[in-house]
Design goal:
Two copies of one chain form a homodimer. Chain A is an alpha/beta fold. Chain A folds into two domains: about 20-495, Amino acid/polyamine transporter I; about 510-650, Rossmann fold (3-Layer(aba) Sandwich). Helices cover about 65% and strands about 5% of the residues of chain A. Chain A is built from 24 helices and eight strands. Chain A has a five-stranded parallel beta sheet with strand order 6-5-4-7-8, sandwiched between helices. In chain A, strand 5 (about 540-550), helix 21 and strand 6 (about 570-575) form a beta-alpha-beta unit. The radius of gyration of chain A is 32 Å and the shape is elongated. Chains A and B meet through helix 18, helix 19, helix 20, helix 22 and strand 7 of A and helix 18, helix 19, helix 20, helix 22 and strand 7 of B. Chains A, B: It is a multi-pass membrane protein. Chains A, B: It is found in: Membrane. Chains A, B: Keywords: Membrane, Transmembrane, Transmembrane helix. Chains A, B: Its main location: membrane.
């Protein structure tokens, strides 16, 4: 049984890797770009949709603003890229925003950034996979209304791939990312050529009338109009997520790490910007209609569209129009886009466990997050991320539009704090730097980060104002909970460390004067004999066997057998008026301690070792409770003397080594 | 925190009881009757309803058969009572049917009876409480459509009462049972007086037309009619459950136990029979209509009754009619009947844990079922029963009619096997008994049990044939699963006992030649110092400290500190290429064992003892996994050296003593 589990695990997760092979899992730029950039690039698959969808609330005329909204998004994107190029140079160790904030703004800001990032990694997975599920169901009618199941399956597959380790991920993900760039490039170029040639067809949805909300019957005017524009912009800022992934992932780059990371960032910014603007322009040229609620907003001759109308994502609609007459192109675009979204989620699977591990090392999360699994990947973090994302997907019914309201807040909290940290960083460095060349470069960097801080801070306020009631409050709440939790964990570890610190060396060196061995006995059988033999071998000053008198008959039998065997250890029978095992033993051990407080009491407990979990239910229940209770008594050592039952043979006790740290009984 | 839990537990469950006080919890007849008879008496609250409901399928004319069906039920009831009077005299030890079957028919029949009884106890709770919930909702309109919740709450309350112990149950339950007998007696007498005085009013439902199933438009004729009569009889046999409760409960009676139990049985049979017949006759006289699906079967002028018509149970309808003009009587009858049904469920709470404990003692169920909780009640059995009953209630939507299809099968399996066992018992006894007076009494008993076997066997076949597809298959399946499970558990315990038996005394006396102590070290702090001191105090032949080299820096720091402190124990650093803790330690310990196989290796593990469960998540994870794995290695003793953190102070390790045996970490 366990062999099968082991074999299955090896098949799914692969062979363990040695520490030394960690160096070989470093990524060259051509692999790092797809691994880290897929997040930012893939948001092109839903960010334009959200801009159009939000503007649609003000009717068809408002759509004319979409390229301008896109342009503002691109400006902010490029500013953020420029800022982060300073970050990766100054902090190449991979702590990313967390490290920048902690170093320059203190621990509180650090944990703030960390909680924001953790929440956002989870949302990256949830949003990307939900969007992927919708691309899949647009192309494969059989998947319609099963998006949640498809999304959960996708997250599970990603989890397994990541448990195999980072290297395979890189190679496996490079090809589809480049395919995606190529196919979006082909779409944009073909579209542009046909537009200028004057034969660009209209999108299938361009024939529908678009009905806005009653509040916007005058179009985008007044405060309401400005607010809607701001909301469209805030949604479009989803395109900016993923930039920070690179700053957290610098150590995974080949040397020179910082330079390579900075170059990758620039590449990413350029490609991403081009894609967003091109898609929004093409959408306008082909008259794409994309509504939040298509069944009430889209109409034909004043009648709503039929209930089985399925709204295809914008890139899909563009592919249909641009490659009209060649249907396979639509399926290729849908497939590649769906795949790239899955890969985007993978970025979070790279970033989350690293951050969790750093937080575990710093004592803000349980230390076991810092322990590596046997595939060099941080198994615990990967599994935690997967579970949280699945919960979100199920709770929000895999709706990209609803999930996107929760998104971005975290990223911009960390953007803003990180840029503020960088400002402080340069100011501090400038205080001690004498070299004028270096000083002028630092001043330039400080200006870049200052502009970055101004912009990201403004966007953060816009996002909070426009999205708070739409779901951003959930994100803030989750961040707050994580913040309090991490502070509490750190405080706990600090307190324990203080409590355990060696204050008085001589006291620590004092030895107990005598050893009093107590062997617990219930029956005369092999495990008891072994426990007696082991206890005697340790040559204690006092040794006695102890049993609890629950059943008169059993005790009489035990005493008779003890006498027949003429065992060289006296047997003591403890009275148990309430027919319990634990309390009388505890009471006796405490009385021994009270009589000679400087003695050490070693309690030997014979224990069955079983091969199946259900056997555990049939044995050891009393022994386990007793062990747990005895540990609360100072001056007592609990020694388990195992007896390996036949069913345990072939087991090594190592079966549950990877994944979450389950507790072996 | 734990103080509050403890105080709450004491408040709900009461103070612990000493073993000696067990004698004082014995029941006099006047208390034993209500405790054990409430099951059988309470079935009068639903058995007549089920007879009428089944006959109604053949239309209003078929209702004329109801007193005759009731009469057959009563005949079988009296035969069963007569048979069980023989049982309690021959087997006064409380094993009941299980003991009778095991002793006379062998272990397989014994487990068969046991699984039948266990299933039936659960159904007793589920059926009685569901019926009670319907009485409650008939009287209290606010409870309508919340029967499931009400039933689950009632089971939970019963569970708590029973965890307090059997004595309070007896006293608390005597008064309502006698009230019930009095109020049903008053109902029957008043009804009879008014009937013969010629002024008995008709029931409210008598005005409805009753529509039978199309198959029975000719009334009760042919095979279909006979089958329906048989089904009505089978449902009516629900009145027989509870008789075996007394035979299982003989030890709880005052002396002379057997005679008192036999007298109680006779009382019970007489009262129960009178009630059933009286109620069915009264129902006929008042024209009560009771249908399986009132909203299609009951009509007014050819139109179905309105959807908010609530069908009141038969006893309630009778109370309305007989005590017409005095509405409080209806509420009193409903309240007392509902209460008695809850008390009936209590019979199962008395019987199930006792049987579970006997099966635990005999090794058919996990041994912990044999351990008593601190209130002399078998806490584990009580909680198991409550959970199973709640599952059934929720699964069957608290529908008495649907649950009753599952009921009775188990009882009659155990009736039949038990009577067959008694036949064998008398035949065997007669073989050796010389005294002619005793012989003739034995022969008379044998005839009674023979008749009992014939009747109960026939009823079992009728029940199986008429109810198999209606739900009895579920019961049979559950019985089968329990049967296989119990056989498997016993086989496992037998195999283990054989494996552990002392075969070679001299080998068991051989001592390991030397002791090799390994102290696991991760940091230099108080817990490590204590583990070192304790290990040294035990004066092993070899002692060494061992650490796992996961992180270069940490190890260098540890070594430096070790040298500074000049500790008298050598420190060994184990290589960990895969950054694990468990595997390198395991490998090292095995290599020590391989080099000197006759040595004993004691591994000292410093362990934190924490006061809160969540602290456990932050500590000890590596230690726990390591301990579990080391136990699989022969020749190794795992010694936990506890360090009590400040948060553990005030904890005794005994907080989770009652209820299920949770495992303390």
């Amino acid at each position: 049984m366990s062999d099968i589990v082991d074999a299955a695990k090896r098949l799914l997760v692969g062979r363990p890797k040695r520490s030394e092979s960690l160096g070989r899992t470093l990524l060259p730029k051509r692999v790092a770009l797809p691994v880290f950039a897929s997040d930012a690039l893939s948001s092109v698959a839903y960010a334009p949709d959200e801009i159009l969808l939000t503007l649609s609330l003000a009717g068809v005329a408002a759509l004319a603003f979409s390229p301008w909204v896109g342009l503002v998004v691109v400006v902010v994107l490029l500013i953020v890229v420029a800022s982060y190029r300073q970050n990766v140079r100054a902090y190449p160790s991979g702590g990313g925003d967390y490290e920048v904030a902690t170093t320059n703004l203190g621990r509180t800001a650090g944990i703030g950034v960390a909680s924001a990032l953790l929440v956002d990694y989870v949302l990256t997975v949830a949003v990307s996979i939900s969007a992927a599920a919708h691309y899949a169901s647009a192309a494969v009618p059989g998947l319609r209304d099963h998006e949640v199941v498809a999304a959960v399956v996708a997250v599970s597959v990603l989890t397994l791939i990541n448990l195999r380790g980072v290297r395979e991920s890189g190679t496996a993900f490079a090809v589809p990312t480049y395919c995606y760039m190529a196919i979006i490039g082909a779409l944009v170029v073909t579209g542009a050529v046909r537009y200028f040639a004057g034969n660009l067809p209209q999108a299938a949805s361009s024939g529908y009338e678009l009905v806005g909300e009653a509040a916007f019957d005058q179009g985008l005017v007044g405060i309401g109009g400005a607010f809607l524009l701001a909301r469209a912009f805030a949604s479009g800022c989803a395109a900016l997520t993923g930039v920070e992934a690179i700053s957290n992932g610098v150590p995974a780059f080949r040397k020179p790490k910082s330079r390579n990371a900075a170059t990758t960032l620039l590449l990413l910014g350029t490609i991403s910007s081009t894609m967003i603007i091109s898609i929004l322009l093409l959408a306008q040229a082909t008259g794409v209609r994309f509504a939040e609620d298509p069944h009430s907003q889209l109409q034909v001759n004043g009648e709503p569209v039929s209930t089985d109308y399925v709204q295809i994502p914008v890139i899909g609609q563009l592919a249909e129009a641009v490659f009209s007459g060649f249907p396979p192109a639509f399926y290729a675009v849908s497939a590649v886009t769906g795949l790239i979204l899955v890969l985007a989620a993978n970025t979070a699977f790279n970033g989350f466990p690293v951050l969790g591990s750093i937080l575990g090392r710093d004592g803000y999360l349980p230390r076991q997050l810092h322990t590596r699994g046997d595939r060099l990947a941080f198994s615990n973090g990967i599994v935690t991320l997967a579970i949280a994302a699945i919960v979100l997907i199920v709770a929000f019914d895999a709706s990209t539009t609803r999930l996107i309201q929760l998104y971005i807040v975290g990223v911009f909290v960390s953007f803003t704090l990180s840029q503020l940290g960088m400002l402080r960083h340069w100011t501090r460095e400038l205080r001690t730097e004498p070299n004028p060349t270096v000083r002028s470069r630092m001043k330039r960097s400080r200006v870049v980060n200052g502009i970055g801080f101004g912009f990201t801070g403004t966007v953060l306020i816009i996002v909070l104002v426009t999205k708070f009631t739409h779901g951003a409050w959930i994100t803030l709440l989750a961040m707050g909970v994580l913040f309090v939790l991490m502070r509490g964990i750190r405080k706990h570890y600090d307190r324990v460390r203080e409590e355990l610190a060696l204050d008085d060396i001589s006291a620590a060196r004092a030895l107990p004067s005598r050893v009093h061995a107590v062997v617990l006995v219930s029956k005369v059988h092999k495990p008891t004999m072994r426990a007696l033999a082991y206890a005697r071998a340790a040559r204690p000053n006092v040794i006695e066997a102890v049993t609890v008198g629950v059943d008169r008959e059993d005790i009489d039998g035990l005493v008779a057998e003890w006498e027949t065997l003429d065992l060289p250890v006296p047997l003591r029978i403890l009275d148990s008026p309430y027919r319990e095992i634990t309390r009388p033993v505890l009471k006796y051990v405490r009385s021994v301690r009270r009589e000679s407080p400087r003695d050490l009491v070693i309690v030997y407990i014979p224990e069955y070792v079983v091969g199946h979990w259900w056997e555990q239910l049939l044995h050891n229940q009393s022994a386990l409770r007793l062990k747990g209770s005895l540990l609360f008594t100072p001056g007592v050592v609990v020694a388990s003397v195992p007896w390996q039952l036949a069913s345990s043979r072939g087991h090594t006790g190592l079966e549950d080594d990877t994944f979450m740290h389950g507790r072996r009984i």
